[in-house]
Amino acid sequence: xxxLIGLVVSSALALIxxxxxxxxxxxxxxxxxxxxxxxxxxxxxxAVLSLDRLEPEPKLHLGFAFAWGAGVAIVLGVAxxxxxxxxxxxxxxxxxxxxxxxxxxxxxxxEEALKASALLLLLRRRQEIDGLTDGIVYxxxxxxxxxxxxxxGYYLLAYDTDGAGGAVQLFVMRGLIDxxxxxxxxxxxxxxxxxxxxxxxxxxxxxxxxxxxxAVFLHGLWNGAATTGSLAWLGAAYLVIMAALVLLIVVTVVxxxxxxxxxxxxxxxxEQTGLVTPADVRMLSTLPAxxxxxxxxxxxxxxxxxxxxxxxATELTMLHLRAERQGMDPARFAxxxxxxxxxxxxxxxx
Length: 350
Known about the structure:
By secondary structure, the chain is mainly α.
């Protein structure tokens, strides 16, 4: 219920912000700006969700993270950044300096904290963040929501200044060259939060701080390079951000392979239930075999059943991993285990 309320409130705030942009920028400029902001979203969302296909997260949670970024994070981010700039203005700094401070210092510090706070609200359902990939996915969704609404504002400003050509020119930079900026920044925090939740090492809480500092650094680096107007600085910042993206992709690929391999360790222990056979274990233990099994199942009318079976078996493996990494009350473990076994029993029809 709390997440549903958060989704509604955040969505309402995002709509209010967009309505204010419409009133201030006019229908023509707003329509073009909204179109440019939305155009890359399907591809970006598909890219983020492709990381999550092995163990899909609940749609409500993903929607909440996106809406939080688009609504609450945007509104509070603008308000707090303006308040901080007002303090620097009262301190006697010039308008140009205050503007640069807002972009390079205040915005990264404030916005990254607000976007990542979506993950903190999900901690009540900590079983949903049971791997590093989950933290990256939720953080990316918050970043995409934030970027979508923010881009409408930026494109509208460019339209007001330089017309449609100015808006399209800015779109090339923000929507085509660097569309994953906000998701990448916040994903570093998501990585830190997920590590802290799924590990029992003494330094696990430090991972959250390191992730936040990394996000602020990348965000500030890009904004700072943009304020210089130097292509060399922008290029250098872009390379650093792309290096972070490669790191995040490597983390998800390695974790996915480890999870699939672990199925060959844990699932044979359930062969006596009749729900897992050696052939099933082989099918579940490699990504190509899982894909081939789904293709076969669709051909014989069992596509949904195979997907449900694979998902339940994956969740069962994740349960064992959580118990191994974090420890778990035996009664809770047994209850969750039996739930996944029941789902596998219901789905298995071959």
